[in-house]
Amino acid sequence: MRGGARAAIAAAIAAAGLVSGAGPAGAHPAGPPTPPPAPPVAVEEIPAEDVDRYRSHVTAIDPPLGGLEARILDGQEKFEISWTGQTPLVVEGYGGEPMIRRSAAGVEVNRRSPSAYLSGDRYAAVSLPEQADAAAVPSWQPLDDAGSISWYDHRAHWISPERPEIVGDGTEGVTIFHWRIPARLGSRDVVIRGGLDWLPDAVRAERSGGSDPLLAAGLLAGAAALGAAAGFELRRRAG
To answer: Which strands, in side-by-side order, build the sheet including 78-83?
Structure first.
């Protein structure tokens, strides 16, 4: 097992350009805190009373692209994209390596991408295999021809069981940080931008017990492939 995977992912996330949000006490100075190194077991999770207090959301796709959609599922859990264009869209991982490719042929995951393995677990509590190397030539693993793919993108949600300092006593809503997920469309750079918010008590109460209506937009198709595909979900659109 390679030690320090969670610490490494936090460092990569910080380097990827998280921008602190504005708030009455000033936003968290460096985005998510660096989680301590941990084995892929006995991970401390976000307390149940805080789960519904986080909300991540997409704010922009730069530049705007017809056929590209991005959204957050279940408050702050999984990040989902769909792409209907002909040119392959490649989402970059935490180290800038190709991680996911969506083209007319379907969805593929780079088995050499460390980010692909880390993104298969909500808390990045995984052991990276020896083949995981961000500098290596990509090895693309076909998954399916589903319309979209979702995964735990740790740039777009809170990964620590500890509350962000900016939320204070938790009674007021605040933006914790702004995030960005880079991609490539041929020779063009594409950036999906968003933010992570802490919800006040009243808003949290309205959301509790409800389901994200986006989940009803299509049927889940399980990824049968192993390895880097674990933790990824494919979604076929109805109609």
So the answer is: 68-73, 78-83, 148-151, 233-237, 218-222
What does the alpha-carbon distance between residue 19 and residue 50 come to, in Å, rounded to a whole number?
A: 23
> Which tokens hold the place of 207?
């959301």
Q: pTM for the full model? A: 0.75
Transcribe 77-138 into DSSP letters: TEEEEEE--SSPEEEE-TTS-EEEEEETTEEEEETT-HHHHHTTSTT---PPPTT--TTSPP
Q: Read off the pLDDT of residues 182-220 as tens digits, 9 standing for 90 and up.
A: 999 999 999 999 999 999 875 654 543 333 322 222 222
- Nearest CA among 203, 218, 239, 184 for reference residue 57: 203
